[in-house]
Structure formats: C-alpha cells, structure tokens
User: What shape does this take?
Amino acid sequence: MIKDRDNTERRILDAVGRIVEREGFEAVRINAVASESGMSKILIYRYFGSIDGLLAKYLEDKDFWLNFDTSQLPQGDVKAFSKQIFRAYINMLRSSPALRKLYRWELSSKHPSINELRKRREETALKIIASVCELSGESFDRVAGISTLVTASVSYLCILGENCGVYNSLQIDSDSGWEKLLETIDFMFDKIL
Amino acid sequence: MIKDRDNTERRILDAVGRIVEREGFEAVRINAVASESGMSKILIYRYFGSIDGLLAKYLEDKDFWLNFDTSQLPQGDVKAFSKQIFRAYINMLRSSPALRKLYRWELSSKHPSINELRKRREETALKIIASVCELSGESFDRVAGISTLVTASVSYLCILGENCGVYNSLQIDSDSGWEKLLETIDFMFDKIL
DNA sequence: AAAGTATGTTACTTTTTGGTAACAACCAAA
DNA sequence: TTTGGTTGTTACCAAAAAGTAACATACTTT
Assistant: This one.
C-alpha cells in the first residue's frame, strides 16, 4: 500500500474527466467516480467534501474558458476577424466532448461554479464585442445581437449533434453540415457588416 | 373507493405534466409520478407499462408539434413572412415551460419518441424552407442555413433563460433582451433577403 | 524507537428508487 | 346472486445510491 494523496486526487479527477466525456456531468456520482478511479469513495469525501466540491475542483483545474487572447485584438479587416473568431468557436466546441457536456449541463444545473464560469466568459465576450464595435462602427446592441445569434446557435447544434444527425436537412454530426453553416455565417457577415 | 380507470390515467398524465413543467423530463420517475398523482405506482405499470410508455403517451397526447398550418403558406412579402414565423417560434418557446423542457431533454436523451417528434418537425420545417426558397429565389442551403442559425439560437437561449439571466449582455430572461434579439433578426433579414 | 497523524481498506448502515405479490373492493355479465 | 375480471390498496422485496464507522497501514516527527 503506497500513500500518495496527490496521486490519489489526480486519479479521482482523471476519473471525473472520463465520466464527463463519456456520459456528461449528470453522471458524475460518488459511486461512479469511486469505481471509475479505483479509489474508495470515502477518500472522495475526505479530499473534496462532496460531489459538488469535486466538480468545482474539476472545473477549476480544467481551463474551460474561451481561451482567446484579448490583449491582441483585431486590427484591420473586421469581416475577416469576425469570421475567424466564429470558426474558432466552432472548432473549440466540435473538438471537445467535455466542453459540449459542460454546455449541456449548464442548461439544467444551478451548480455554483457555473456562475463563475459565465462571468468570465461574459467578460471575454464583451471585450471582443466592444472591439468589433469600434472597428465596424456598428452599435453595441447590434454586434451583441449578432454574436449571440451565432454563438447560441453553434452551442445548441454542437450539443444536439451528439444525439441527432440532421437539423433542417443539415448534417450536424459531420463536417459537411458545418461547412454549409460556416458558409451561411460568412455570407451573413458579407451582407451586414 | 371509486373505480374509474380513465380518470386515474388522466390524473397520472396530469402529474407527469406538472413534473415536466417544474423539473423537466429527467425528473419523471416512477416514484415521483406516483406521489405527485396520488396514485399507486403499480397502476402506472399496469396502464402504461413503463416510464418510457408513460412518456410516450404524454408526448402523444400533448401536441408538441410546431403547429403551423403548412397548407396556407406565404404569399407576397417574403421578408415579412420570415420575420413573422420566427416571432411565432420565439413566442411558442417562451410561453411554454413544458416545451422548453422537451427541447432540453432532447439534448441528452435517446428516447424513441424523440425521433418521431423530430421527423415531424423536420417535415414541417422543410416545407416552410422550400416555400421561402421559391418566393425569394435563394438556394435551399442558404435558406436552411439561415433558419437553422435563428431557430437553434432561439432554442438555446430559451432553455438557458431558465437558469441564466444574461448572455452577451442581453437580458434573455425578460422581454427586453428578446426585443433586442428580434430587432437583430429583423435587421438581418432586411439586409440579406 | 515511540507516538501521533495522514492515508487507505473493509464492511457496514441508511436512503432512495424500482419493482412485485397478495389481497380487497368494485362492477358487470350470466 | 354468484362468478369472473377489473380496479385499487397495502405491504413487501431487491437493487442502487449515498454516506459512515472501525480498523490497518504507512509516513513523520519527536
């Protein structure tokens, strides 16, 4: 029997990660984590207090933020910048099962950590929106409205794509559907900016 | 003791409705339904077979389809028609807690009834899209792309609004935010159609 | 080396949830 | 009115989930 608390904690958090990616945050239960990690559940209580505490720690460790460098904001072409930023958003969500599960979980949970996450996301988003306003001369509400339209839509479709293949005839569980959607977004920006 | 199967079934289905509106489909469990309805759970098994059967019946009774009359599709102004149809979509979702819960449930469940729902929704949507194509001269993919952008976005924000007040500075849990969003949608249609 | 604490194991209790058996009351048809 | 099936009640059983007690082993400090 080796004693190594750090190692144990890491194993437990790794187990959480696997469960989240596979089944989502809703499935992170004490017994599930215990058996997935191979650790006894009493250690989870000792080291993290509760499932809520465990999830808080997991979210804190993972860097789930829109990791966009807000210090070097766009110069020049606003259209190109806008298009690019939504491409990045789509790629981020499409490539991360855990992030998709997080977004899904947010729709039904009131976990305290979620507020923190949202606050930070909101900050980043507002910075980006503000700088697009400056460059384009559009009003804040307009830019915010359009960003909202696009990001909310992308979030929804990425989550839905895990259970459902087609939406309005678009194949949202494969690249083909997303290319069409990107084309639509590009088209929209060409027309309205 | 009064014997009245029809009445009992209705009480059970009503209980399902209340649970769905309050806590969502995930919370529709056998014991919860039994205690909410005041009926003994064995009757649920007898009359509906299982929770899946009960939910199937609930979904069948409720007319959850986008009840849009596809026989009298738009004449004349495409822009006005498009704007109006998305207004209707927003109102539908914003006014029905049960529908919001259904949309949320779809994001994580693989319940067989859901496929049926989606099929019928898809049919209606495609009809509408097709007629907008004709009137506007736009390609099918373009119209489908734009519809997808708007409806997916609206679905997401309506669900999110139950737990979260603000998204990109928009107040999505009150009319003020939705008016701004509608204004954005109108603006978009003015520019691109 | 002895004592004290942190770590880990085992086995248990409790609670919740799902599921069923056995019986009682009602209604309708013969 | 007896008989048979339907409806409803009560009380259980079983499985899964959360949570804890008691003990054993390793490490640290003195």
Notes: The beta strands of chain A are 166-167, 170-171. Chain A touches chain B through 48 residues (CB under 8 Å).
